[in-house]
Amino acid sequence: MSKRVQIIALILIIVFLLPFLLPFLKSFFSEKGNEKAAEEYVQSQTTNTSPSFKKEGELSFISKTNQQEIKKIQIEIADNEGERQQGLMYRTAMEEGQGMLFIFPNSEPQSFWMKNTLISLDLLFVDENKEIVTIQKYAQPKSESSIPSSKPAKYVVEVNAGFCDRYQIKEGDVVKF
Questions:
Q1: pTM listed for this prediction
Q2: Closest CA to 171 of 129, 122, 135
Q3: What is the tens place of the pLDDT at every residue in 109-139?
């Protein structure tokens, strides 16, 4: 059998099995307490798109040294358990002027991982006074390694990898939202 016939046969098998696999995937994610992630993942697989960015506010990075705005971005907010668990999973891209703000109920040491996150990110851990206390740069996509804060944080901002280097954002700078 030629390679072309094999590829066509494989595509037909996948197309045939997809309707049977999607309910399983939705059930799997739902059992993990992340129904929104399941719905967006299933939708992205059936439409060949990744979950879309939803602007819910703006966030400015302010220099510690001169109190001037360094950069303003649009943010999507994750302020409940389901949204924080989903984060930026399954997204294939994010624009330079976009990011996600995670809001936690308490200021405490935070730790993230990149499982099911397809793009490299910079993670900025921010304390209750909105000061950046830890920056973890160039987080590896799909990694299950822990990415911790070095101090207690109430907020975490995720932006594209290299963002902090491009705009010289440093620990001690503050955020405003």
A1: 0.73
A2: 135
A3: 999 999 999 999 999 999 999 999 999 999 9
